Amino acid sequence: MVHYRRSLVPGGTFFFTVAAADRRSSILVDNIVSLRRAFRITRGERPFTIDAVVILPDHLHIIMTLPEEDADFSGRWRRIKSLFSRYVVSRGLPVERNRRGEYALWQSRFWEHAIRNEMDLDRHVDYIHYNPVKHGLISRVSHWPFSSFHRYVRQGWLPQDWAGLIEEPDAAGFGERGDEFR
User: Fold this and answer.
1) Are residues 18 and 43 in the same domain?
2) pTM for the full predicted model
């Protein structure tokens, strides 16, 4: 069995990418109410702060900060995925099961990165907010409804026209920046 090395930092801030098993689906945005409910319940049981988030049709990116003396982000993801899967199934959506009999709605793993400093945090927040443009879903960051970008605007942290109208997403200079994301 493969043993993954996780950066377990109590009270740490982490960037995550979590994906649906079917990367062609729109399961997350089609069931956004259920996903929000899964997050709300999990945060009530095992608190964490959502620093930035974007929900795309088939995957999500989030920066979360754990409470002091708590490093168990894997348990939180297990709970969020489980609750969301149960909600979707209870609504009558057909979901296949894997060979162990578990719902095969999510990819079994997730990608995490421990945020190292303010510059690292800022770059990941930009990446999150720009991601719907990068994927060609919209031409303006402000047009995507499932993003913490709107909270950043309300708080005065970013202007409404941040990143402007992007004609060629790759030319904007946002997104992956090489080694900073490894």
Assistant:
1) yes
2) 0.85
